[in-house]
Amino acid sequence: MAIGKLWLTGIAAAALLSTSVAAARGAQGDDGRHAPAGKDYTLAVIGDIPYGDAQIARFPAVVDQINADPSVQLVSHLGDIKSGSSLCTTQYFEQVRTQFDRFEDPLVYTPGDNEWTDCHRPNNGSYDPFLRLAEVRRLFFPDAGVTLGQHKERVRSQAREGYVENVRFEKGDVSFAAVHIVGSNDGLAPWTDMNRAAPTPDQLEEQAGRQAADLRLIHETFTDARHQQNRAVALMIQADMFDPTVAKPAFADYSAFQPIVRALADEARSFDGPVYLFNGDSHVFNDDNPLAAGSSWLSFYGVGAVGNLRRVTVDGSTGVDNYLRVTVHRRGPEVLTWERVPFAS
User: Fold this and answer.
1) Is position 180 within any domain?
2) Cα separation, 103 vs 74, whole angstroms
3) In whole angstroms, what separates CA 306 from the centre of its chain?
4) What's the CATH code of the domain at 64?
5) Which residue, of 13, 50, 93, 186, has the greatest Cβ tally within 10 A?
6) Which pTM was predicted?
7) CB atoms inside a 10 Å sphere around CB 298
8) Using one digit for the tens of pLDDT, what is the confidence trace for 190-201?
């Protein structure tokens, strides 16, 4: 049996067990930190952090600062908990998990390419990426349908399909989803240390299965938003599928994202409200509409213009000096607004 099938079978079984555990214990009750009905709701969004020794040493202070922000009620980490040139050790993952556990609010985390698909690189330790993904799921998603953080909340999970990391939830009349879409062409970048010029059969199998689950999650999120008459949809992913510094996207770098972008474009056009996409990956804050009329990405992805899509890239990598405070407004013309909050010196 292919290794992709082996790890998927094992993870699916573990996810079903975790679902039972989570259902038995129940989510924690409200502790007064969460907005009453009709009030605004605020998230702290981070990604591509911590990178390097200095940020690793500083990360506890970042956690402390976000914990001390009285407006924040949920934290979202958009993936890449390490740099792309550092070791993918279980010991390091456990170190980050310890800090994640210190967040007082619920934490929703979606994996990035640096913590699994890029771990084949010699400077990452020449790991089997599938085994690293299994370890990420074991350490960061032990309870299916329950967030991390000290104040845990229930979320809808795709654990029964083997994708415990894919979740969706609602806050302030907004439908949110954390979708496992990663850089490195969604995990299909060739494993160069194996002297391959194309993805392995197991890479193709893993990505196809995960993308099918991603597409279901996106469609379900929009379907629920329409059914609940929610005001907006917000997707949280790691990959930057629209890097503004790329003038002519190469097929080998972005081809795997085409079905996702086409689905997102179709759903956004038929949704009567704003659609927000938050991502990391390219490390520099950016606020745009990547599928606006005239965008060079329209022809590459084979889609028409989408007027109601707004994308935000969070700052990351070694130069990051802030977190993004995102507010869900229950009233007013703007559903979501955001500001970059500097890290304390």
Assistant:
1) yes
2) 9
3) 22
4) 3.60.21
5) 186
6) 0.89
7) 18
8) 986 555 678 999
